[in-house]
Amino acid sequence: MAIQYEQMMFSFGLDQPQNVQKGEPIELLPLHEYDVVVVHISAGKDSMGSFFQLIKNGVDLSKVELWHQAVDGHGEEHQEFWDWPCTEPYIEAVGKKFGVPVYYQWRRGGLYGELMRENSYTGDVFYKEGEQTICLPTTKGTLSTRRKFPAQSADLRIRWCSSYKVDSAKRTLGNNPRMSGTLEHRKKILWVTGERRAEGGNRANYLEKELHGSTSRRRLVHHWRPVIDMKQADIFALFREFKIMPHPAYYLGFGRVSCMGCIFSTAHQWAAYQYIAPERVARFAEVEKEIDHTIDVKLSILEKVAIGSVSKVLPIGDPLLPRWVSLALSRSFSVDDLVMEDFIMPAGAFRGCEGGSP
Ligand code: SF4
């Protein structure tokens, strides 16, 4: 249900009806009227597709910034557990190629820190502004213990990984002075995310354009989902058009890319992880034992690996497979790696939503 807009009495100063409520459909401003365009980029195809759509709509790239919520923390705080090693370097390469800055937000200790949390508060939020790292301390809540994997559920209250990730961006938006204007001149922000209805679940009900909950008297935030009704094939066509290589995990046969070892990974996908990165699977298995809780309600990670079939995911016969594996597991990814003059359609482009969140 829409939340009543806190300040119904002041004018938007724009062509919006004054009774627009948060979570209600809106018309966007002409793109050039926004002061900042924040594109949320996971490195997955839909967030990249949103970025391409903005460019095709003539966005001024000098106003665009790519925001990435780092699931394993960032900088000195980084500890590899849940993310594909190449994801951050891939995003950096996208930023360099298109001349747009990349900004990171994360929680102390990343998803792993939250998973292992014991008798403490949930981790502080951090964000990067230039060379500076700013901490937004956790001030609410109670001391508690997590030590449970996120539930494999559409309910974000128990599938805590997704909300934990997204909240770091929302808190940054609400607290970063750069994202606020004045009472006379509100900062106009376009907040762009890459959900698609075809991926199912709650996305079917998402609006394409709505007033974002962080709108205030000093900040107008319009939320746009530019690929909401696009098909998977249309998204990969954009990569071909822009001559950009999709995230390497698509070339390993994954149809959805976000965390490596997503809680929704199928047995075949766990078998594929075991094939390309056995040490990562071993780490998950150790943690399952340590906290006495498995990701899957029925099977342990190692039991899933045992019943999975590598060839149901990895394109075993692809002569370029060693290159895709090496790119996916590398912490460096150059602009040369990113640009694909002769586009190769990834094996994952022919897979559905298997192994992704509902
Ligand atoms: S990709 Fe999977 S594990 Fe990562 S935040 Fe989303 S649902 Fe959780």
TrEMBL record:
A Pfam match: PAPS_reduct
Protein name (record): Phosphoadenosine phosphosulfate reductase family protein
InterPro entries: PAPS_reduct_dom, Rossmann-like_a/b/a_fold
Stretches assigned to the Phosphoadenosine phosphosulphate reductase domain: 159-262
A single GO molecular function term of this UniProt record: catalytic activity
Organism from which the protein derives: Cohnella phaseoli
